[in-house]
Amino acid sequence: MAKTLFILRHAKSSWAESNKSDKDRALKVKGISDIINTARSFAQKVNTLDLIVTSSANRAVHTAVLFAETIGFPPQKIRIEPMVYQADDQELVEMIKRFPNDCHGVMIVGHNPTLTYLANRFLADRIHEFPTSGLVGIVFNVDSWSEISPEKVKTVFRSFDL
């Protein structure tokens, strides 16, 4: 059975509170509505999601929770992974290759520029910049996450134009 990687950039966040650290920034109202719309669109087209792995940054966790609530995804299947916050794309690939094989659809919620680099490892039509609340789905023709590679990409879809 194929494996599907969903890459989701956190929703639009606020820079207004200068006393907060980058990790503690909150979502803007527009970001909240954008991620709800992305999740609704996802729910109409996709029926395979087994796990959400999110950065530990407040804006990423809030994005993951809103996404899950919107599609009726169980919150106990959201895993907060601190390394995603500052990981580079190679570290994310190594993490992905260790996902449990009984999970056929896994979503990573994280940050730019790392998500752009991660997606571009597998896409023929490269992304210039991953937009906030943007989603890319990559279906790999593999039985094990450890086998993912650009050569194994079967299908790609995205929620935004290049």
UniProtKB/TrEMBL annotation:
SUPFAM superfamilies: Phosphoglycerate mutase-like. Substrate binds at R59. It holds the Pfam family His_Phos_1. InterPro entries: His_Pase_superF_clade-1, His_PPase_superfam. Gene3D superfamilies: Phosphoglycerate mutase-like (3.40.50.1240). This is Histidine phosphatase family protein.
